[in-house]
Design goal:
The longest helix has 25 residues, at about 375-395. The chain has helices spanning about 35-45, 80-90, 140-160, 175-180, 195-200, 200-215, 235-245, 280-285, 290-300, 315-320, 340-345, 365, 375-395, 405-425, and strands at about 5, 15, 20, 50-60, 70, 100-105, 120, 135-140, 165-170, 220-225, 250-255, 305-310, 330. It is globular and about 55 Å long. By secondary structure, the chain is of the alpha/beta class. An eight-stranded parallel barrel has the order 3-4-6-9-10-11-12-13, surrounded by six helices. The termini are far apart.
């Protein structure tokens, strides 16, 4: 099953059913220009055997980054930027795979050191301890129109420099996801209130991106199955939005879930969703966090669906494909260490390694405090930093390190983020 090709609605051919999922790299310059490290990283991943590689966040606005070191396309590229982007896409497609840019805007999930007053649907601060995120400012009509134009420009440039598709990031609590959720979108104009209004931004972006890139260029959307928060974006909302996206000519829909406030994406095996959004036990038994959501969604839409999160056993992946629960399997964390994981699966590997049982990577004293507010948040991010640093090591040296400690990875990642943020301020 995994080796079967897939024809997307736009006509593009994918050589197999495996995708390197989007994972933030943090390897651009302070000005958002791709580096040689990004080229080396995606050269390694292009040799992985995956049919599709998804980039980490390519931001449409330099003032709304997911983290320092994001690639930024917020204007027509100059010669230096165009050359760097082209070198990146050439490295990422050299083995005949697709390489899609995940384009995004962080909204209120922009860290304070980047922007203390990020723009958002409504002036509702992120509900996290630690003070990492600032006080958001509600967007004006002109701000919203500028965001739509920013996504269109970014997608067009991505096509021009050699990406073979784009994914519009509408999940995980970033700006479009913020508009979709009634918790973070409390507007009373045409961009808020009803689901139709809350989805207007996403659908406007998709329609205008399609017009800009043409009918044959793959457009994907990453969409939350649910926010897993009381009063947030629910699965019934997601089903309706998926139907609208199908009508808007989306080629692949990736099903995900969660936000920074309820981080299913960061700590999926260690967290449970809130009671009213409970996931079926069969999903956890099959390892795939969003497989059941995708299976229910496939009853409502006909576009291909991608599921990422938790799948490690080849048999479970084959089952998800055979049952119609998914058309593409996304692989994330395993590829931070086993960079050729798709090739190994296609060659018969029965199960991908687990490099953690979430918090098992952390020091014993920190694990003992994991349920205490800020400590639990720090523990989640510390585990994430281990993967961030593995990605950075592949970019710098061509290989990951099994000997990397969480402490050293966290220290290195925090240092690099601080240096990039400082350099960005100096160059502004």
């Amino acid at each position: 099953m995994l080796d079967q090709h897939l024809t997307l609605p736009c006509g593009a051919q994918i050589k197999n059913r495996l995708c390197k999922a989007a994972m933030t790299e943090g390897l651009a310059t302070a000005q958002g220009i791709p580096t040689e490290a990004l080229q080396r990283l995606y050269s390694v991943w292009s040799d992985s055997g995956a049919g599709i590689l998804l980039s980490g966040n390519v931001q449409i606005d330099a003032d709304h980054l997911e983290r320092p070191g994001n690639v930024v396309i917020d204007k027509e590229p100059d010669d230096e930027m165009r050359a760097a982007l082209t070198a990146w896409t050439q490295a990422g497609t050299q083995h005949g795979n697709h390489f899609w840019a995940q384009i995004s805007h962080a909204g209120r999930q922009t860290q304070k050191m980047i922007n203390p007053h990020p723009k958002a649907p409504s002036a509702i601060k992120l509900g996290l301890p630690g003070g990492q995120f600032g006080e958001p400012v509600a967007m004006t009509e002109a701000d919203i129109e500028a965001v739509i134009s920013g996504f269109v420009l970014c997608a067009r440039v991505c096509k021009d420099v050699g990406f073979t598709g784009v994914q519009i990031h509408a999940a995980h609590g970033y700006l479009i996801s913020q508009f979709l959720s009634p918790r973070s979108n409390q507007r009373d104009d045409q961009w808020g209130g009803s689901l139709e209004n809350r989805a207007r931004l996403l659908l406007s972006i998709v329609r205008k991106v399609r017009s800009a890139v043409g009918p044959d260029f793959p457009i994907s959307v990453k969409l939350n199955s649910a926010d897993f928060q009381r009063g947030g974006f629910e699965f019934t909302d997601s089903l309706q939005v998926a139907q609208w996206l199908e009508a808007a000519s989306v080629d692949l829909l990736e099903i995900s879930g969660g936000t920074y406030e309820q981080p299913k994406l960061l700590n999926m095996e260690g967290l449970e969703p809130v009671e009213e959004q409970a996931i079926a036990a069969s999903t956890r038994a099959r390892e795939a966090y969003f497989v059941d959501f995708a299976q229910a969604m496939h009853k409502q839409v006909n576009i291909p669906l991608m599921v990422t999160g938790g799948l490690r056993q080849k048999a479970a992946m084959d089952e998800a494909l055979a049952s119609g629960s998914a058309d593409v399997i996304g692989i994330g964390r395993p590829m931070c260490v086993m960079t050729d994981a798709p090739k190994k699966l296609l060659d018969g590997l029965e199960e991908l390694p687990r490099y953690e049982n979430e918090l098992s990577l952390l020091p014993q004293w920190l694990k003992g405090l994991e349920y205490f507010g800020l400590i639990r948040t720090l523990a989640t991010f510390a585990t994430q930093y281990w993967y961030y640093e593995q990605i950075a090591l592949i970019g710098r040296t061509g290989a990951a390190s099994n000997d990397l400690s969480v402490f050293s990875a966290t220290k290195q990642q925090m240092r690099e983020a601080s240096m990039l943020a400082t350099a960005r301020k100096k160059s502004a």
